[in-house]
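Notes from the 1:1 (GR / supervisor)

We went over the backlog. Supervisor wanted to see one worked example end to end before approving the batch request, so GR pasted a single chain during the call. The sequence is below; no edits were made to it. Supervisor asked that the structure be written out right there so they could see what the output format looks like.
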Amino acid sequence: MNLQSMTGFARAVAEHDGTSIAWEVKSVNGKSVEVRLRLQQGLERLEPAARQTVQKRFARGNFQATLTVSRAAGQQAQPVVNEAFLRDLAGLAKRLQEQFGVAPATADGLLSLRGVLDIPETTETEEARAALDSAILSALEVALGGLEQARQGEGAALRSLLSGHIDAIEALTVRAEADPSREPTVIRERIAEQVRLLMDASANLDASRLHMEAAFLATKADIREEIDRLKTHVASGRVLLAGGGAIGRKLDFLAQEFNRESNTLCSKSNAAAVTAIGLELKAVVDQFREQVQNLE
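Structure output shown during the call:
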């Protein structure tokens, strides 16, 4: 299955019986599916069906869908102006201007007042309304199909980036595993040197006890478990990317695991080279997690 980003934009237009229909849909990152609809007055009845249409198609993202419906001139009701009321308002506005110096009234201001201009609802049959609703929802499906393609296009790019990050994590893990500081002979020499320095500093110290303590600390500093877990997480990441689908949450959890292991590796490291690898690993993991935030 294809990966999807959570960001995208699409537009679809259609025509039904002389009525022009246009949908603009866009999505951005979100924890779940959240839909905001902008519908023209009189078309609010479509909100439940439109919302459900979006929710069925996508798993995550904040969506905004705007509908524009333009009826043919012959289908539009002619506005009715209450001229008597308009004259009264115009006269009142003129007196206010003369007596109190207020700004003169404008035509658009007067016409916008309640009761001055009325646009009667057009009369349409139930069949005509149902046909229009069906055409509008069909156009929404087309727009969402375009949005899905846009999200998949960005998802393909993200798959490539994430795969590269996983390759880098694996390479750094192998480097840490193969670092010379982890060789048993090097560890023994380091312990012996530490014990020798402590013995030189104080002759009252128990050499056998120091060797035991140094061996215990060396065991605690071993990063074998972290390396094994990193390798397991790398394999899991590749399986998820190969499977595709809505894997954003799973990859986000995996990024947290990568981060935990890289932090532990740095804290347990007793060699500068391994610490440097751990810090480089953390930087790659941060990039991985940042990209994962964009996936559905």
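Supervisor's comment: The two ends are 12 Å apart (CA to CA).
Batch request approved.
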